[in-house]
Amino acid sequence: MQLPPKVTDRAFERLAEIGAGAQGQALRVAVEGGGCSGFQYEIKLDAPEADDLVLEGQGERVVVDAVSLPFLTGATIDFTEELIGARFIIDNPNASSSCGCGTSFSM
């Protein structure tokens, strides 16, 4: 049984702050080949597609395509504000290693 990714309240709050849902947009989290560790995350605002897994909260949506979903089993999608900037982050238990930028990982 694959656990779908979780989205924190903080991530949904940030989407509400930027008005994503009001514009018909969702936060798309995708995994693609590349990056310094073999895979990299692509995180962007996008319109939901028919085959997406849709995670909803606080009137906002996070979507994951069917190809990316197995790579994100049990992951947590969060939003953080640090000195280097504010960004959405992925805490992925499937990643055996990741690089310093936090957007690339290997399995």
TrEMBL record:
SUPFAM superfamilies registered for this protein in UniProt: HesB-like domain (SSF89360)
Domain Core: start-end pairs: 6-102
PROSITE patterns documented for this protein: HESB
PANTHER family for this protein: IRON-SULFUR CLUSTER ASSEMBLY 2 HOMOLOG, MITOCHONDRIAL
Gene3D superfamilies registered for this protein in UniProt: HesB-like domain (2.60.300.12)
GO molecular function annotations of the record: 2 iron, 2 sulfur cluster binding; 4 iron, 4 sulfur cluster binding; iron ion binding
Entries under InterPro entries matching the protein: ATAP (IPR016092), ATAP_core_dom (IPR000361), FeS_cluster_insertion_CS (IPR017870), HesB-like_dom_sf (IPR035903)
Highest taxon above the source species: Bacteria
Protein name, UniProt field: Iron-sulfur cluster assembly family protein
Gene Ontology terms describing biological process: iron-sulfur cluster assembly
